[in-house]
UniProtKB/TrEMBL annotation:
Acts as a transcriptional regulator. Probably redox-responsive. The apo- but not holo-form probably binds DNA. This is Transcriptional regulator WhiB. It is found in: Cytoplasm. It comes from Rhodococcus koreensis. Residues 73-112 are annotated as: Disordered.
């Protein structure tokens, strides 16, 4: 887990979270949980997240600091996939597209 102790982290958003007071077992899987049981638990957690007033703050926190559980309406695998896609997109060279009102430049060489 990353060490964020040197950063000032404002976690006041957690006080306004819809999950506050909910049993943490809804958001974190027990060892060996698989299949339909896990999918149902995650679905239940995501239902709590979907209308949460701090969903954006929670998701931003989760994408940089949480590796387990449902955070910001995303599971561990969904956060990992999002992070991979974001890194991949950032690493891709951007294609230069000419402005729509300009035509390509043509260089002519003088002929004799």
């Amino acid at each position: 887990m990353p060490d964020h102790s040197h950063h000032h982290i404002d976690r006041n958003w957690q006080r306004r979270a819809s999950c506050r007071g909910t049993d943490t077992e809804v958001f974190f899987s027990p060892d060996g949980e698989r299949g339909r049981v896990r999918a149902q638990r995650e679905h239940t957690a995501k239902l709590i997240c979907q209308d949460c007033p701090v969903l954006t703050e929670c998701r931003a926190h989760a994408l940089t600091a949480e590796s387990h559980g449902i955070w910001g309406g995303m599971s561990e695998s969904e956060r990992a996939r999002h992070t991979r896609r974001t890194r991949h997109a950032a690493a891709r060279p951007r294609e230069r597209v000419p402005a729509s009102n300009s035509s390509p430049l043509r260089i002519r060489t003088p002929t004799a």
